[in-house]
Design brief:
alpha+beta; 5 helices; two-stranded antiparallel sheet
Length: about 100
Amino acid sequence: MMDFSKLEKLMKAFASSTRLGIIDCIQLGITNPGDIAITLDKHRSTVENHLRILLDADVVKRIKTKSKKGILGSTYILQKNANVLMATIKHLAKENQ
């Protein structure tokens, strides 16, 4: 029998309008937590908490960055499987409208 714990974690990661908004931002090229927070009109700490859930479910990957001034930061990219799953979810949502 299949271990559904990883699938459950993945489904929970997609079961939040804030996390879906974060995924959508990343797909649009908005990859910095601060910029995502501004775009979604959320507190940065809220976005970072949701990003941790997406990281834990292996939906996003964190890339450590360094600005020209030497300030450390992070940007995020979607895992390939998350792009496919998000496209499927969007397609299903359009069909059910």
